[in-house]
Write a structure and sequence with these properties.
Length: about 70
């Protein structure tokens, strides 16, 4: 588990549809969060990485510019 997201495929999907796309699955580092920024994805779901402590929520929010 926690092998990383398919950023390219998710961003390609976001570019090809007229509805908001939320990235989910495999987001396990702050670098994964940063990889989606400015790429047309409406948001991200960070699951296991939060409750295992792999990602700090405050750090993720700061990285996302919120």
């Amino acid at each position: 588990m926690l092998k990383g997201p398919n950023v390219k495929a998710t961003c390609d999907l976001a570019d090809s549809v007229d509805i908001p796309v939320v990235a989910s699955g495999g987001i396990s580092t702050i670098d994964d969060v940063r990889a989606y920024l400015g790429r047309g994805v409406e948001g991200m779901i960070i699951g296991k990485a939060l409750y295992t402590g792999a990602i700090d929520l405050k750090e993720a929010i700061k990285a996302a510019g919120c």
